[in-house]
Amino acid sequence: MKWAPLRFAFSVVAVMALALGGANFGFPGAGLQAATPPPVSSPFITPPPLSATATPKPSGQLVRYSGQLLDAQAGFIFFTTGDGFRASQGMKIDDPSGGSTTLKPQTRIYARAAFDTGSGEIVELALSTRPLPAEASYIDIQRFAIALSTPASNPELAPAEGFNGKDVLVVFTVEVPPRTPFGDTVYLATDVSGWSATAIRMDRIDALHYRATARFRSGTHFLYRYTRGSWRSAERGQNGLEVPPRSFVVHNADVQNVNNVVYHWGDEDSTAPDLGSSIPTPYQPIPFKTPPHH
User: Fold this and answer.
1) CATH class of segment(s) 167-268
2) S-S: 64 plus which of 54, 98, 135, 206, CB 3.0-4.6 Å?
Protein backbone atom coordinates (compact mmCIF):
# COMPACT_ATOMS: atom_id res chain seq x y z
CA MET A 1 0.00 0.00 0.00
CA LYS A 2 3.04 2.29 -0.12
CA TRP A 3 2.21 3.24 -3.71
CA ALA A 4 -1.15 4.77 -2.90
CA PRO A 5 0.20 8.29 -2.04
CA LEU A 6 2.21 8.34 -5.27
CA ARG A 7 -0.80 7.38 -7.43
CA PHE A 8 -2.81 10.14 -5.87
CA ALA A 9 -0.02 12.68 -6.52
CA PHE A 10 0.28 11.62 -10.16
CA SER A 11 -3.47 11.94 -10.61
CA VAL A 12 -3.43 15.52 -9.29
CA VAL A 13 -0.54 16.48 -11.57
CA ALA A 14 -2.29 14.96 -14.60
CA VAL A 15 -5.51 16.84 -13.89
CA MET A 16 -3.60 20.14 -13.55
CA ALA A 17 -1.70 19.47 -16.80
CA LEU A 18 -4.88 18.81 -18.66
CA ALA A 19 -6.43 22.00 -17.31
CA LEU A 20 -3.44 24.10 -18.26
CA GLY A 21 -3.10 22.48 -21.70
CA GLY A 22 -6.82 23.00 -22.52
CA ALA A 23 -6.61 26.68 -21.64
CA ASN A 24 -3.49 27.27 -23.74
CA PHE A 25 -4.19 25.11 -26.74
CA GLY A 26 -7.93 25.19 -27.16
CA PHE A 27 -8.67 21.51 -26.63
CA PRO A 28 -12.29 20.53 -26.96
CA GLY A 29 -14.20 20.90 -23.75
CA ALA A 30 -12.08 23.88 -22.64
CA GLY A 31 -15.18 26.09 -22.46
CA LEU A 32 -14.42 28.09 -25.63
CA GLN A 33 -17.45 28.52 -27.96
CA ALA A 34 -16.90 28.48 -31.71
CA ALA A 35 -18.04 31.68 -33.39
CA THR A 36 -21.16 31.26 -35.56
CA PRO A 37 -20.11 31.87 -39.21
CA PRO A 38 -21.95 34.62 -41.10
CA PRO A 39 -24.62 33.36 -43.50
CA VAL A 40 -23.35 32.74 -46.97
CA SER A 41 -25.38 34.49 -49.58
CA SER A 42 -26.62 32.25 -52.38
CA PRO A 43 -24.91 32.85 -55.71
CA PHE A 44 -28.29 32.36 -57.42
CA ILE A 45 -30.40 35.50 -57.13
CA THR A 46 -34.11 35.03 -57.83
CA PRO A 47 -35.01 37.52 -60.57
CA PRO A 48 -38.06 39.70 -60.15
CA PRO A 49 -41.22 38.34 -61.82
CA LEU A 50 -41.57 39.26 -65.47
CA SER A 51 -44.66 41.24 -66.34
CA ALA A 52 -46.87 39.56 -68.95
CA THR A 53 -47.18 41.15 -72.37
CA ALA A 54 -50.27 43.29 -72.42
CA THR A 55 -53.04 42.22 -74.78
CA PRO A 56 -53.71 45.01 -77.28
CA LYS A 57 -56.91 46.78 -76.37
CA PRO A 58 -59.21 48.60 -78.77
CA SER A 59 -59.08 52.36 -78.63
CA GLY A 60 -62.88 52.43 -78.51
CA GLN A 61 -65.82 50.11 -77.94
CA LEU A 62 -66.44 47.01 -80.05
CA VAL A 63 -69.42 46.82 -82.39
CA ARG A 64 -70.16 43.42 -83.96
CA TYR A 65 -71.86 43.16 -87.33
CA SER A 66 -72.87 39.91 -89.03
CA GLY A 67 -73.22 39.41 -92.77
CA GLN A 68 -72.03 37.49 -95.82
CA LEU A 69 -68.60 38.14 -97.28
CA LEU A 70 -68.03 39.31 -100.81
CA ASP A 71 -64.24 39.22 -100.78
CA ALA A 72 -61.14 39.81 -98.66
CA GLN A 73 -57.90 41.12 -100.08
CA ALA A 74 -55.27 43.84 -99.78
CA GLY A 75 -56.14 44.41 -96.12
CA PHE A 76 -59.84 45.04 -96.76
CA ILE A 77 -62.96 43.00 -95.96
CA PHE A 78 -65.91 43.31 -98.36
CA PHE A 79 -69.48 42.41 -97.45
CA THR A 80 -72.32 41.79 -99.91
CA THR A 81 -73.55 45.30 -99.13
CA GLY A 82 -70.84 46.31 -101.61
CA ASP A 83 -68.81 48.26 -99.04
CA GLY A 84 -65.27 47.54 -97.96
CA PHE A 85 -63.84 47.86 -94.45
CA ARG A 86 -60.24 48.09 -93.36
CA ALA A 87 -58.83 45.13 -91.38
CA SER A 88 -56.45 45.86 -88.51
CA GLN A 89 -52.89 44.60 -88.86
CA GLY A 90 -53.36 41.99 -86.14
CA MET A 91 -56.95 41.04 -86.97
CA LYS A 92 -57.93 37.76 -85.31
CA ILE A 93 -59.74 35.12 -87.39
CA ASP A 94 -61.66 32.48 -85.45
CA ASP A 95 -64.98 30.65 -85.28
CA PRO A 96 -68.13 32.11 -83.63
CA SER A 97 -67.22 30.52 -80.28
CA GLY A 98 -63.74 32.04 -80.28
CA GLY A 99 -61.87 28.86 -81.21
CA SER A 100 -59.60 28.23 -84.17
CA THR A 101 -61.05 27.70 -87.64
CA THR A 102 -59.91 26.35 -90.99
CA LEU A 103 -62.27 28.62 -92.91
CA LYS A 104 -60.86 31.48 -94.96
CA PRO A 105 -62.55 34.85 -95.53
CA GLN A 106 -63.88 34.48 -99.07
CA THR A 107 -67.02 34.70 -101.18
CA ARG A 108 -70.20 33.18 -99.66
CA ILE A 109 -68.69 32.71 -96.20
CA TYR A 110 -70.67 34.24 -93.34
CA ALA A 111 -68.80 36.43 -90.86
CA ARG A 112 -69.24 38.40 -87.67
CA ALA A 113 -66.89 41.39 -87.71
CA ALA A 114 -65.88 43.17 -84.51
CA PHE A 115 -65.26 46.85 -85.28
CA ASP A 116 -63.12 49.05 -83.06
CA THR A 117 -65.16 52.26 -82.91
CA GLY A 118 -62.00 54.22 -82.14
CA SER A 119 -60.11 53.27 -85.31
CA GLY A 120 -63.01 52.01 -87.46
CA GLU A 121 -61.02 48.84 -88.25
CA ILE A 122 -62.05 45.21 -87.96
CA VAL A 123 -60.09 43.63 -85.10
CA GLU A 124 -61.76 40.21 -85.11
CA LEU A 125 -63.53 38.17 -87.78
CA ALA A 126 -65.55 35.09 -86.80
CA LEU A 127 -66.26 32.82 -89.80
CA SER A 128 -69.07 30.33 -90.40
CA THR A 129 -70.73 28.45 -93.24
CA ARG A 130 -74.13 29.44 -91.85
CA PRO A 131 -75.72 32.85 -91.18
CA LEU A 132 -74.77 34.30 -87.80
CA PRO A 133 -77.18 36.20 -85.52
CA ALA A 134 -77.06 39.97 -85.89
CA GLU A 135 -75.71 42.03 -83.00
CA ALA A 136 -75.54 45.43 -84.69
CA SER A 137 -77.29 46.93 -87.71
CA TYR A 138 -75.59 48.04 -90.91
CA ILE A 139 -76.28 51.66 -89.92
CA ASP A 140 -74.03 51.18 -86.89
CA ILE A 141 -70.96 50.31 -89.01
CA GLN A 142 -71.68 52.13 -92.28
CA ARG A 143 -69.54 55.09 -91.20
CA PHE A 144 -66.48 52.82 -91.21
CA ALA A 145 -66.90 51.90 -94.90
CA ILE A 146 -64.08 52.98 -97.21
CA ALA A 147 -65.47 51.60 -100.48
CA LEU A 148 -68.25 54.10 -100.97
CA SER A 149 -68.27 55.18 -104.60
CA THR A 150 -67.55 58.81 -105.33
CA PRO A 151 -69.68 60.21 -108.17
CA ALA A 152 -67.54 61.31 -111.11
CA SER A 153 -68.18 64.80 -112.34
CA ASN A 154 -68.60 65.60 -116.00
CA PRO A 155 -64.99 66.01 -117.17
CA GLU A 156 -66.04 68.81 -119.49
CA LEU A 157 -67.46 70.86 -116.62
CA ALA A 158 -65.19 69.98 -113.70
CA PRO A 159 -61.47 70.78 -113.38
CA ALA A 160 -59.17 67.90 -114.19
CA GLU A 161 -58.16 65.76 -111.24
CA GLY A 162 -54.48 65.34 -110.49
CA PHE A 163 -54.04 61.55 -110.69
CA ASN A 164 -51.02 60.08 -108.94
CA GLY A 165 -51.05 56.68 -110.67
CA LYS A 166 -51.46 54.70 -107.44
CA ASP A 167 -52.62 51.10 -107.52
CA VAL A 168 -56.39 51.01 -106.80
CA LEU A 169 -58.54 47.98 -106.02
CA VAL A 170 -61.79 48.29 -108.00
CA VAL A 171 -64.83 46.18 -107.10
CA PHE A 172 -67.56 45.82 -109.74
CA THR A 173 -70.96 44.60 -108.51
CA VAL A 174 -73.87 44.16 -110.89
CA GLU A 175 -77.52 43.27 -110.34
CA VAL A 176 -78.94 41.17 -113.18
CA PRO A 177 -82.54 40.65 -114.35
CA PRO A 178 -84.56 37.98 -112.50
CA ARG A 179 -84.96 36.08 -115.77
CA THR A 180 -81.18 35.53 -116.03
CA PRO A 181 -80.52 31.74 -116.31
CA PHE A 182 -79.07 30.60 -113.01
CA GLY A 183 -76.28 28.59 -114.64
CA ASP A 184 -75.03 31.41 -116.86
CA THR A 185 -71.84 33.37 -116.23
CA VAL A 186 -71.63 37.15 -116.45
CA TYR A 187 -68.59 38.93 -117.92
CA LEU A 188 -67.16 42.43 -118.17
CA ALA A 189 -66.20 43.43 -121.69
CA THR A 190 -63.94 46.49 -122.09
CA ASP A 191 -62.50 48.53 -124.90
CA VAL A 192 -58.96 47.92 -123.58
CA SER A 193 -59.50 44.16 -124.05
CA GLY A 194 -60.56 44.58 -127.68
CA TRP A 195 -64.23 44.26 -126.68
CA SER A 196 -63.85 40.54 -125.98
CA ALA A 197 -67.23 39.44 -124.63
CA THR A 198 -65.49 37.20 -122.06
CA ALA A 199 -62.70 39.54 -120.95
CA ILE A 200 -63.33 39.56 -117.17
CA ARG A 201 -65.27 36.72 -115.58
CA MET A 202 -67.51 37.67 -112.63
CA ASP A 203 -68.41 35.55 -109.59
CA ARG A 204 -72.00 34.96 -108.53
CA ILE A 205 -72.60 36.10 -104.94
CA ASP A 206 -76.35 35.45 -104.78
CA ALA A 207 -79.30 34.86 -107.10
CA LEU A 208 -79.19 38.32 -108.70
CA HIS A 209 -75.70 39.70 -108.04
CA TYR A 210 -72.26 39.13 -109.52
CA ARG A 211 -68.95 40.71 -108.63
CA ALA A 212 -65.41 41.04 -109.98
CA THR A 213 -62.33 42.70 -108.53
CA ALA A 214 -59.42 44.09 -110.50
CA ARG A 215 -56.52 46.48 -109.97
CA PHE A 216 -55.98 49.59 -112.06
CA ARG A 217 -53.77 52.65 -111.86
CA SER A 218 -55.54 55.84 -110.83
CA GLY A 219 -56.28 57.96 -113.88
CA THR A 220 -57.14 54.90 -116.00
CA HIS A 221 -60.21 55.49 -118.16
CA PHE A 222 -62.03 52.79 -120.10
CA LEU A 223 -65.44 51.80 -121.49
CA TYR A 224 -67.20 48.59 -120.49
CA ARG A 225 -70.39 46.57 -120.88
CA TYR A 226 -71.83 43.46 -119.23
CA THR A 227 -72.41 40.28 -121.24
CA ARG A 228 -73.23 36.63 -120.71
CA GLY A 229 -70.40 35.44 -122.94
CA SER A 230 -71.43 36.78 -126.35
CA TRP A 231 -72.60 40.03 -127.88
CA ARG A 232 -75.95 38.45 -128.66
CA SER A 233 -76.47 38.25 -124.87
CA ALA A 234 -75.01 41.69 -124.05
CA GLU A 235 -76.88 44.03 -121.73
CA ARG A 236 -79.76 46.19 -122.92
CA GLY A 237 -81.26 49.36 -121.45
CA GLN A 238 -84.32 49.69 -119.27
CA ASN A 239 -86.43 50.11 -122.40
CA GLY A 240 -84.99 46.93 -123.90
CA LEU A 241 -82.96 48.79 -126.54
CA GLU A 242 -79.22 48.98 -127.18
CA VAL A 243 -77.30 51.28 -124.81
CA PRO A 244 -73.89 52.93 -125.19
CA PRO A 245 -70.98 51.45 -123.20
CA ARG A 246 -70.52 52.57 -119.62
CA SER A 247 -67.61 54.91 -118.89
CA PHE A 248 -65.33 54.52 -115.89
CA VAL A 249 -62.44 56.53 -114.42
CA VAL A 250 -60.20 55.23 -111.65
CA HIS A 251 -59.72 57.85 -108.92
CA ASN A 252 -57.02 58.33 -106.29
CA ALA A 253 -58.33 55.96 -103.61
CA ASP A 254 -57.46 52.74 -101.80
CA VAL A 255 -60.66 51.03 -102.97
CA GLN A 256 -63.27 52.11 -105.48
CA ASN A 257 -66.68 50.46 -105.58
CA VAL A 258 -68.85 50.34 -108.72
CA ASN A 259 -72.51 49.28 -108.56
CA ASN A 260 -74.52 48.73 -111.75
CA VAL A 261 -77.89 47.30 -112.77
CA VAL A 262 -78.60 45.32 -115.95
CA TYR A 263 -82.31 45.56 -116.84
CA HIS A 264 -82.42 43.30 -119.90
CA TRP A 265 -80.21 40.98 -121.99
CA GLY A 266 -79.99 41.09 -125.74
CA ASP A 267 -81.03 37.47 -126.21
CA GLU A 268 -84.34 38.06 -124.45
CA ASP A 269 -85.43 39.14 -127.95
CA SER A 270 -85.31 36.15 -130.29
CA THR A 271 -84.72 38.50 -133.23
CA ALA A 272 -81.51 39.97 -131.75
CA PRO A 273 -78.74 40.07 -134.38
CA ASP A 274 -75.81 37.69 -134.07
CA LEU A 275 -72.74 39.89 -133.57
CA GLY A 276 -70.31 37.02 -134.08
CA SER A 277 -68.06 34.82 -131.96
CA SER A 278 -66.71 36.04 -128.63
CA ILE A 279 -63.30 34.39 -129.18
CA PRO A 280 -60.75 36.56 -131.03
CA THR A 281 -58.40 34.93 -133.54
CA PRO A 282 -55.32 36.22 -135.45
CA TYR A 283 -57.58 36.68 -138.45
CA GLN A 284 -60.37 38.29 -136.47
CA PRO A 285 -58.87 40.20 -133.49
CA ILE A 286 -62.19 41.97 -132.86
CA PRO A 287 -64.66 39.11 -132.93
CA PHE A 288 -67.99 40.86 -133.33
CA LYS A 289 -69.17 42.13 -136.71
CA THR A 290 -70.54 45.43 -135.48
CA PRO A 291 -68.84 47.15 -132.51
CA PRO A 292 -70.98 48.28 -129.60
CA HIS A 293 -72.25 51.83 -129.64
CA HIS A 294 -69.66 54.38 -128.48
Assistant:
1) mainly beta
2) 135
